[in-house]
């Protein structure tokens, strides 16, 4: 393909603006068109990043200059919009969770495969330097066999988050309603860390025992959760999630413990480093000392986007695709079912 891939943006909120900033740093792509039900949002995005405004989703998908459709809509609209784009022969990059049920994700996977198109889910935190280094260390055996994983999704969201989003740019309370959001802090936030654990360790989530509750906000979805999760190798993962923890900052963290050492991953949205501990000397790392591992990089969205573009141009797999969305969503759904039934629930990912 001799020209830049044209990206059509559907949903011009904060996530879209972050993606467009990344597009400006990846030479093979450019913003071709934008659409939002609030025209002023599309206008602002086009003024800052280029492209043309399209009045409807269908007109954007049909635009001959659009090769890739990026979908950043309320959760209940993601899958149907991505399906439209795939049917029109467009590649898709979809915000998490990509769909609200596993069968819809399977359908997206199969549609993309049958048409030779690339379907990606925007798990951009996979491309942060801390995650990449942690994955390398685990694969090299630095911490031995994994025995325990601790996930903390502890945030102090503003009271207005559920009504206007994290940046106050939305005039829609879809995040507060179960039918449109599908879930609260676990689906909106912890799902990223659930995906990162799989990506770093190569392990799968097998079973969940959990409780979720709505304790701090007047919404339909959960703002608090706790879960015990069995991994495919028998290791135990624990999750503690809170959307409104007073004063919380940089506390979306992951600890991965093994027979030989431990990794502490920083909050991906913060500035802390990856930390690494080993019981015995390992390569350049001295025993019984906490090491700060260099290589921190904040622009993970550009790295992720570049890998997604290479998948389109070279024919390889995307950096995160429907199979990854399936595994992450199935784990979240097992957490929710366990809380509803009071039982341990198997993670059924396909």
Automatic annotation (TrEMBL):
Record-linked InterPro entries: Gfo/Idh/MocA-like_OxRdtase_N, Gfo/Idh/MocA_Oxidoreductase, GFO_IDH_MocA-like_dom, NAD(P)-bd_dom_sf
Annotated Gfo/Idh/MocA-like oxidoreductase N-terminal domain residues: 6-123
Residue ranges of domain GFO/IDH/MocA-like oxidoreductase in the record: 131-263
Highest taxon above the source species: Bacteria
SUPFAM superfamilies linked: Glyceraldehyde-3-phosphate dehydrogenase-like, C-terminal domain, NAD(P)-binding Rossmann-fold domains
PANTHER family: D-GLUCOSIDE 3-DEHYDROGENASE, UDP-N-ACETYL-2-AMINO-2-DEOXY-D-GLUCURONATE OXIDASE
Name of the protein described by the UniProt record: Gfo/Idh/MocA family oxidoreductase
Lineage: Bacteria, Bacillati, Actinomycetota, Actinomycetes, Propionibacteriales
